[in-house]
Amino acid sequence: MALPNKVKTLLDEAQALSDYRDCLAYFYKWLSNQFSKQPVRNLINSRAEFIDRLLIKLFNDTGLAQYPDLALIAIGGYGRGELHPFSDIDFLVLTKDTPCEQVTTGLEQFVTYLWDLGLDIGHSVRTHEQVLDQKQNDVHFTTSLLESRLICGNHIEYERLKRHIVETPIWQSSDFFIAKVNEQKIRHKKCHGTAYNLEPNIKENPGGLRDLQTIFWVAKKHFHAETLEELINHGYLTHEEYQELLECIENLWNIRFALHLAAGRSENRLLFDHQPHAAELLGFGSEGKASVERMMKRLFRIMSRVREMNQMLLSYFEQSILPEQVELEATPLDRNFERIGNKIRVKNPSVFFRRENLFVLFEHIADNPRITQIDPSTIRTMRQVRRRLLGDLQDYAGCRDAFLRLLKHPNGMGRAFTLMHKHGLIAAYLPQWRNIFGQMQFDLFHAYTVDEHTHKLINNIYRYFDKEHISEFPICSEIVARMDKPELLYLAGIFHDIAKGRGGDHSELGAVDAMAFTKMHGFTQSDAKLVAWLVQHHLLMSVTAQRKDINDPDVIAEFAQKIKNERQLDYLYCLTVADIRATNDNLWNDWKNTLLRELYLHTQRALRLGLENPMDMRDQIRDKKRQAKQRLINLGYFEEYIDLIWSRFKANYFTAFSEQQISWHSEHLLQSNDLSQPSVIVSNKPMHGGTQVFVYSPYESALFAKLVSVIGSKKAQIQHAQVMTTKDSYVVFSFVILEVNGDPLSTSRAAGIRKGLETLLKDPKKKIRIKKNRSQKFKDFNIRPKIILRPHARENRSLIEIQAIDIPGLLTKIAEVFQAYSLHIHAARITTVGERAEDFFVVSNKDYEALDEVQKAELHRALLKKLNAETE
Predict the structure, then answer these.
(1) Tell me: the pLDDT tens digits for 329-372?
(2) 305, 416, 688, 709: which could join 366 in a potential S-S bond, CB 3.0 to 4.6 Å?
(3) Which of 285, 300, 316, 335 is nearest to 222 (CA)?
(4) For residues 377 and 312, is the Cβ–Cβ distance under 8 A?
(5) What is the 3-state secondary structure (H, E, C) of 710-765?
(6) Cβ contact 425:358 at 8 Å
């Protein structure tokens, strides 16, 4: 598409810097307006044409055009004639000899003018020999030269350079291919090997534009191809695949173009901030979350197709470019399949007319650890079969039998499942999986699409069986070793989130899907019920561990009643650990591991005692005291002094803490010279999954707010809080704190927090300042504070749940409201995911009773008013 006449006129008539800026402003406005009216290819070509004209004019204006030995050459994406709204402009000034002083001055003026116009440029000035020297050591530079294009200047020197790029022995096709493949592997590894991160990089992610460009670079270097279409003539692409590649390129360009417009700058990562605006620009609507999820689903599906095409074509290229490295001798696997090196290949494409053979292929992968990839010809055949399916593969009895064999195979859910997911066989088998394929969740909690999250969960379960990873989660590894039917655990993992995106309770809908699946596949009624129960209750354990006091026997008894038996507890524990670890790389930490492990062990003990014989609280306290006292006696403390210290505490203290914590607190108090003074201890090493903070002080209603302010000012996160009074009107505060990244604090950081708390207790009137530096990153989530008041298991307590953006000082603000209403805080559970805080408090009124309806209503209004004022 030609540039509009007004742009050409403004550019031709430009003299002063302000004229050029006006021309740029008009062009960018035109470019933005045309996005919904023109094919994106036209627009990115138009920007390249505009920059060509701009550079030529400035080249003339600065007097550089009068030097015949200079050639101005576009390289990289600009060399291809593809420039998105704010893409970098890379060019090379080629000189016959080292430039003289006048040329150098002119080049400095030329580059300075471009900088003053606010353009992002990448430039270099090289002689022919210097270019070849740099080319020899730099594959990136060589790649950019492959896409070079003369803008103006000495065409003879440019043509000479172009011949050298192709013909010189530097970076032979084989070396170039190996370098680009390694480069891609490193790039994919940085993206954790997945295209399905919810803030994907449109260029760098697996399945992104770089994967397409890698195909073209190798084809250009080895086959001297100028277009992808030429690969059809070379036998590497079918006409259908070529059209598919063009469609994928067009879609990725559209999304990248919209991202640049939404960000107002060169940006390749589709951050949450930009997703709603980009979705609207692309025509997905302006409903926010729904529009974004539609756009991202389209993007992830495109990236999946690109990644598969990239793998297939690079494998074909490898066979042509590195024939000596490809093992040609075939090892038969059966009458239909054979192994060539580390790849599996069908002997005859017609083998997939029997649809169950699609899964027999993956059975061979499960049987043979040497097979890590699928031959490109087999990938092509699978893709063609997949497109021509008239129904679901699960409709075929042979496919059902083969799928069940894989499900029960010791290695079936390892690499075989990963490759089935990667090549679309799971989606072709399960219609529900197709619904979650590429389904994102526009929130602060999930880091991957639903299908990729589920894939990661299955991988996590598979690791339980792997001897190399047995030390990661020894309880899970011990459980699965004695598990009679591990395939039921895998099935629960496959179905746990399969109903997301449909509306309604995904756990209940998924349980219905699981029952239908198990019935179709001939599972027994008891096995079917277990899978459905696991799917329906897959969040039960994580919610209980993170939101309730798992040291409370009543909480354990209630949880055990829901679990019913040890078999269901074993399966649910393994599923829960795998689920949380697969949700977000930043969510799993030692603290969560400890919570779940302790909930599992407490519940296991309760079930073994019998639901009709719950463990008596007095027995629990007696056991803890006995173990803690023995530790202290071994350290040299006298029993009468230990009992004297313990006589200060109520029974709830001994139920709330482990024997290790009790002995740790007691040792510190036994060393104190004056127990009337406040005491602070902070663990130097992780304890129960986090850094422990213990404060013993005279009671003051505002003290909780002050303590959390100190911890917040040190940029540490509170994961858990316990608050309880003693018999002598003192108060005990216990916090579990972590760094922002989820790690326990270092020794020096722990010492700094202890000093800050001690300073506060010595000077209670000292004010704590917390900077209000709330990130704008998640402003599009529009999370408004939500207050929920519920009854507590104890009649004289009330449970308050608060969901809000985790602004600095949030806990302090909450505590200030509690203080204003004279509430007593008995316990707190603090959870932060991204910038969402989900905090739970157990409170009572000033008379130590549960809140009545009037008090609840007043507190609800006050908290909303306070938090809304802080988040606006």
Answers:
(1) 889 999 999 999 899 999 998 999 999 999 999 999 999 999 99
(2) 416
(3) 316
(4) no
(5) HHHHCCCEEEEEEEEECCCCEEEEEEEEECCCCCCCCHHHHHHHHHHHHHHHHCCC
(6) yes
Tell me how far apart the terminal alpha carbons of the chain are, to the nearest angstrom. 46
What is the DSSP-derived secondary structure letter of residue 325? G
Cα 169 to Cα 132, 325, 703: the distances in Å are: 11, 20, 75
**Which of 398, 463, 458, 405 shows the shortest CA–CA distance to 582?**
458
Distance CA 845, CA 858 (A): 12
Q: What φ, ψ does residue 804 adopt, rounded to 5°?
A: -165, 170
What is the dihedral sign for C-alpha 41, 47, 51, 57? Answer: positive
User: What are 40-59's pLDDT values in tens digits?
Assistant: 999 999 999 999 999 999 99
Tell me how far apart the alpha carbons of residues 43 and 55 are, in angstroms, rounded to a whole number.
18
Q: Which residue has the tokens 């709830």?
A: 652
The torsion region of residue 742 among left (phi > 0), alpha (psi -120 to 50) and beta comes to left
783: CB partners within 8 A, 6+ apart: 444, 803, 804, 805, 836
In 347-456, where do the E strands start and end?
373-374
CA dist., res. 26 & res. 9, Å (int)? 12
Confidence of residue 166 (pLDDT cuts 50, 70, 90): low
Please choose, from the candidates 514, 359, 361, the residue with its C-alpha nearest in 3D space to the C-alpha of residue 428: 359
Joined together, the tokens standing for residue 698 give 């005279």
773, pLDDT greater than 60: no
At 394-431, the pLDDT tens digits run 999 999 999 999 999 999 999 999 999 999 999 999 99
What's at 842, amino acid-wise?
Answer: V
Two tokens, residue 90 = 């890379």
Helix spans in 35-124 (H): 40-61, 76-79, 101-116
Nearest Cα neighbor of 170 from 217, 136, 198 is: 136
Write b or e for each residue in 400-415: b if 16 or more Cβ atoms lie within 10 A of its Cβ, otherwise e: bebbbbbbebebbbbb
Residues 806-811 have a mean pLDDT of 73
Q: What is the mean pLDDT of the chain?
A: 88
Parallel, antiparallel, or unpaired for β 121-127 and 89-95? parallel
Q: How far apart are CA 449 and CA 297, in angstroms?
A: 9
Where residue 729 falls (left for φ over 0; alpha for ψ -120 to 50; beta otherwise) is: left
Which residues on neighbouring strands pair with residue 798, listed in sequence order? 791, 843
Tokens describing residue 185? 């592997």
Separation between Cα atoms, residue 136 and residue 154, nearest integer Å: 23
SS3 label, residue 493: helix
More reliable by pLDDT, 276 or 715: 276
Structure tokens that stand for 845 in this block: 């009124």
Neighbours of 869 (CB within 10 A): 10
Cβ pair 260, 266 in contact under 8 A? yes
Which whole-number Å values give the CA distances from 689 to 732, 734, 830, 845, in the listed order?
20, 14, 15, 32
Once rounded to an integer, what is the mean pLDDT over residues 525-540? Answer: 96
Q: Which amino acid is at 234?
A: H
DSSP secondary structure letter of residue 64: G
Q: Which residue do the tokens 């007004």 mark?
A: 6
Q: Are 718 and 735 in contact (CB under 8 A)?
A: yes
pTM: 0.84
Measured in degrees and rounded to the nearest 5, phi and psi for residue 588 equal -80, 130
Helix (H, G, I), strand (E, B) or coil at 331: strand
3-state per-residue secondary structure call for 161-172:
HHHHHHHCCCCC
Q: How many CA atoms lie within 13 A of 640 on its CB side?
A: 0
Give the residue from 58, 52, 30, 19 showing the smallest Cα distance to 10.
19
Decide: residue 320, CB within 10 A, 0-12 exposed, 13-18 middle, 19+ buried: middle
Between the alpha carbon of residue 334 and those of residues 116, 337, 347, 360, 370, the distances in Å are: 68, 6, 10, 10, 16
